[in-house]
# Entry
Amino acid sequence: MIRLIVGLGNPGKDYQGTRHNIGFECVERFARQEIGSLIRWRGGFRGEYVEFLKGGKKVTLLKPLTFMNLSGESVAEAVSYYKLQLNELLVVHDELDLPLGVVKLKNGGGDAGHNGIKSIVAALGSRDFFRLRFGLGRPLNEEPAKNWVLKMFTKGELSSLALGLQKACRALDVVLVDGVIKAQNIVNAYE
# Structure
């Protein structure tokens, strides 16, 4: 069972609402869904976290505040503290290779140039953890991806974004209720 769900993003007001912070947005929405509006995020693991019970088991949601490129430091601290196996970790992150709002679940694999995932792989010494990839799509023009992911979503993207966030929260629920293997068949069938 997944016991730690990490949403990737960058801390601070300058990054709120940007494409690269979709991992933060997903875990924040999921926390509101599971716990309610009176969530008390606590400081720890070089980030903010909240714990709750799901199916009689404790689950932790974590937002690393180390900035994206050092996310692995925060994740490694939490994995060590909770004495987790890597199959109990799920990382939610933005994915340029999927269209906006498409959500896919996978285990392991490459980092696809994502610096947060690179940092986690380096800190854990393994690629073998689950990922919930939230599609952003690629920029339509020649703009470098590293600049594009730090921009806000456009008005024309907001409905796809909202649907994607609904799918991501549903995916996290299915993962925790039914397990990752069963959830992959359900989640990866989403359009």
About this structure: The first strand starts at residue 4 and ends at 7.
